Amino acid sequence: MRRVFVGLGSNLGDRAGYLRAAVRALCRGPGLEVVAVSPVYETDPVEVEGEQPAYLNCVVELECGLGPLELLRYCQGVEAALGRERKGEKAPRTLDLDVLLFGEERLEHPELTVPHPGVGRAFNLRCLADLDPGLYIPGRGVVSGLLGGADLEGIRALGEVLEPC
Ligand SMILES: Nc1ncnc2c1ncn2[C@@H]1O[C@H](COP(=O)(O)OP(=O)(O)OP(=O)(O)O)[C@@H](O)[C@H]1O
Ligand SMILES: Nc1nc2c(c(=O)[nH]1)N=C(CO)CN2
């Protein structure tokens, strides 16, 4: 079993509903056990072109008996099942699942880069620090230290925590 962190994001439609449905789908995943869910934050879009609605983001911690590509495929299946519309790279989306960390593994595969290149985005660091401030991100450092250097403007706590399962 690996300790895995999956980032959830939504900036279209019923954003909280999509995150809730994604957590439920992860709970049902074969070989997956949801350990914890971070608080939900409303976050200004980063690294996008033009105007976009604000995201809701959170991170789910899992015990994972799947291989990394199996986990990616499961996450992509969840996105598809919940009706993700792909209107292009970084376009607004109903639901995005990112494999942020897979144990302490570093992977470079045509379909999967781990740690996820966006793991250091401030909203991910905020959520990861809520789950485990001492968490080590391979090649980057410990989450609490990274969070100290992050710009947290544009990240608003909603006071909402999704039920783990
Ligand atoms: N760690 C990862 N988690 C999820 N997808 C990944 C990962 N590494 C590579 N990918 C690949 O990224 C591709 C594009 O994903 P997606 O359309 O969600 O990107 P994006 O959301 O526009 O940008 P970002 O990658 O910054 O979230 C996927 O088809 C997947 O194969
Ligand atoms: N705040 C925020 N910004 C983003 C996000 C996201 O989940 N939250 N995802 C992106 C592409 O996946 C691009 N920009």
From TrEMBL:
Coiled coil: none
Biological processes per GO annotation: folic acid biosynthetic process; tetrahydrofolate biosynthetic process
Signal peptide: none
7,8-dihydro-6-hydroxymethylpterin-pyrophosphokinase domain mapped to chain residues: 5-133
Protein name: 2-amino-4-hydroxy-6-hydroxymethyldihydropteridine diphosphokinase
CDD domains (alphabetical): HPPK
Reaction equations catalysed: 6-hydroxymethyl-7,8-dihydropterin + ATP = (7,8-dihydropterin-6-yl)methyl diphosphate + AMP + H(+)
Species of the source: Rubrobacter xylanophilus
EC number(s) recorded for this UniProt protein: 2.7.6.3
UniProt keyword list: ATP-binding, Folate biosynthesis, Kinase, Nucleotide-binding, Transferase
Matches recorded under Pfam families: HPPK
GO molecular function terms noted in the UniProt entry: 2-amino-4-hydroxy-6-hydroxymethyldihydropteridine diphosphokinase activity; ATP binding; kinase activity
Domain of life: Bacteria
Associated pathway: Cofactor biosynthesis; tetrahydrofolate biosynthesis; 2-amino-4-hydroxy-6-hydroxymethyl-7,8-dihydropteridine diphosphate from 7,8-dihydroneopterin triphosphate: step 4/4
